Fold each of these.
Amino acid sequence: MPRLILSMDGLVLKEMALEKERTTIGRKPHNDIQIDNLAISGEHAAIVTILNDAFLEDMNSTNGTYVNGQPVKKHVLQNNDVVELGKYRLKFIADGVGSPSEQDEAMSYAQAVVTDGVLSGVIAAAEPATAAPAPSGMLGMIQILSGTHAGRTLELSKSLTTLGKPGTQVAVITRRPHGYFITHVEGTVFPVVNGRSLDAQAHRLNENDIIEIAGVKMEFFSQSLQP
């Protein structure tokens, strides 16, 4: 499980596991990670964690969010990244990180299936050794319903499939033993499933659900795995 190490001026203050799918950081008490300092906004940043992947988002904070010295609005956290909030530092430690060559091998990039200016591509990433078993012997599929690539399908064979265009709207579909789940990651507009906008929590996909991301519609369905 990924974790964060909170420090200030080189002194470690706290270590915490990213147990929730969405972890909020800010000055107000309701945040998952509260930093009681006037340099920190009430709701400063959030981290969405899907399996061993974590996505950092600045929540329009007053003083900004920095990663490794660079200001960011959205950022995919890598092992040993240092998130800077004022004088505070949050070091991101990924769980089960292997050697660089193992990480490169674990990451595969699928061919872009939607390129009509809304969804620039589909990225599928998984670690084969830890990939979730197929839910009930079924393999999830996505069929594009609109746009220039309508009719094309994508197998959800990886533990984590990312759909969207960075900077516009990004969502992830995770493959778990008990089903497939979609979670919002980036963008002010949340994914829509069957005409209903989702919230920040993971949503389980059901057979023939219609998903809309940045104006592109697609249908989720499953097919039986052949022995």
Amino acid sequence: MIHVQAPEGTTYCIDSTEVTQAHYAQFLAAVQATPGTEHPECGLNKDYSPTLWPDSAENEFCKHDMWTPSATPNRPVVCIDWCDAYAYCTWAGKRLCGKVGGGPGPFSPGTVSGPDPNNPAANASLSEWYNACSQGGITPYPYGDTYQPTTCLGWDALDPDAGGKGLGDVGSFAGCHGTAAPYSFIADLSGSVSEFTDESYVSPNDGFKDYVSRGGSYANGHADMSCISASTVGANAPGPATGVRCCKSLL
């Protein structure tokens, strides 16, 4: 983990990379918690294993070759849901990245569609994940002010004929990190896989709670690769381009 500081002075640690398949396999082999007990919103969670669907030319959602920890131990784990990610971080003695200082982080849907200066999830003094990605709120991308299409693993860095298939090992894009320590030791906050956080949004229309993943993925283009990028999804919805990174408070 990498020790970082928010602008108002709070310090915490964040994983230097996304959780790998090898890390997650260790969790599956050792975890003793009962699925569904990890969080009050997770009563429907029945299994911590990545959700896989039968392989077929028509099915592009969480194929079996997306979970091969023996063959691809250093690729980020995907096809887990928010509850699985929460359980992993707890088992590892950490927690999902949320509010600076600990606890669930604030969020508003403005982050999804674009910058919102009043959005607490785009405030480096309030959001652990955003603070780490933006180098303390200084840059819109982890590597600087201007989007670079091949610096991080997004759609623009792939051969279009690959159809978005390009998930590689964590840290495999050498320039995809901050420009100075400690941020220079944190890889893949843009692209690779979108990362679940302990941030959520409750719709005022129906009261339904969605959880947040941030940073874009190998399947995303320019608009979704910045530090304000975010997606919302239900607690039990896995995806082929979403993984996790953990944070930890310092005593």
Amino acid sequence: MDENDRLQMVRLALENEPHLKPCDYEFHLERPSFTWNTLQHLSKDYPQHEFHIIIGGDNWALFHKWARHEDILRNYHIIIYPRKDAETDTDALPSNVTVVAMPEMNISSTMIREKLAKGDPIDGLVCPKVEQYLNNIRANKTITT
């Protein structure tokens, strides 16, 4: 699935979220677009804003492997969404890293791609408009995992 499909799904998912806005900003950056690079460009282009990163606990477990992860930690706030498969030691977190108190959902993009590739239903895993979009894609081509 290409980046334009992903952007369209974000647009569909955010239709009723007035405080969130889909953006193709990264589409216009040099590739590969590492998070540090994106954050630097955003901070330069929009100095009046403060940027935070929201990642799953599974990504936090691998954060030390990200490009320029130490610079990200030094300059930005990170919000971790808990995941059942990735425990986060909240006592060892830097002061600018927060774990949100949210119910854990056992849903991942990998799981959704695998279900789509097998032809399994994805109802309840994504919003109805995104489900319809993905089912239309599935009807027209194969979705790879």
